[in-house]
Amino acid sequence: MRKRLALIGLVILIIGVILMVSGYEGIQKAPTYDKIFEISNNEYTTNSFVYHSGDIVIVSGGNNDSGLICNSKLEYVNASNIANYSIKPTKSTADGIYYCNLTNNGKYVYVEFSDKSPGIIAYTIATPSEINNLNRYADVVTAGIPISVAGFFVLMIGLILKKKT
User: Fold this and answer.
1) Mean pLDDT over each residue of the chain, to the nearest integer
2) How confident is the model at residue 10 (pLDDT cuts 50, 70, 90)?
């Protein structure tokens, strides 16, 4: 009985780990850009990018003195007026700030003002179907976590239980 329980726990644990790894690998395939450049004292930017109709831009990182700016307005932006030039996001979630429906073929850059070099400011440009795939991969990782934990506990119970006498 305990060998069978340990084997079941091991199988459940392996399934959970496979789910987490496969979901993580899917997420890692998303093109994410995270290079930051200091363009002047305390002003940092990402590479500029071109927005294509239908794409979704997701930015993670940044602080209160940061925002997505049209490349053509970059020279006018400073720490005190960035709120006037930054584009309002479509939505903001725990995983990032979403920008949709920007000007087609427009060039954009993410700008941050900070006394010290910012941590990570990363952005992804994807189509809605690619975003849906990323959400599915995240769901797979999320499902794998409790399955792995359950498998671990069942395995431990199977290993710790004493033989019937």
Assistant:
1) 87
2) very high
Would the pLDDT of 9 be above 90? yes
Gap between the Cα atoms of 6 and 146, Å rounded: 17
Domain borders along the chain are: 1-29+128-165, 35-120
> DSSP state, 78?
-
Q: Which amino acid is at 154?
A: V
Stretch 98-112: mean pLDDT, rounded? 86
Residue 75, token pair as written in the block: 């020279």
Q: 33-39 long-range contacts, Cβ below 8 Å, gap at least 24?
A: 33/122, 33/123, 33/124, 34/120, 34/121, 34/122, 34/123, 36/112, 36/117, 36/118, 36/121, 38/117
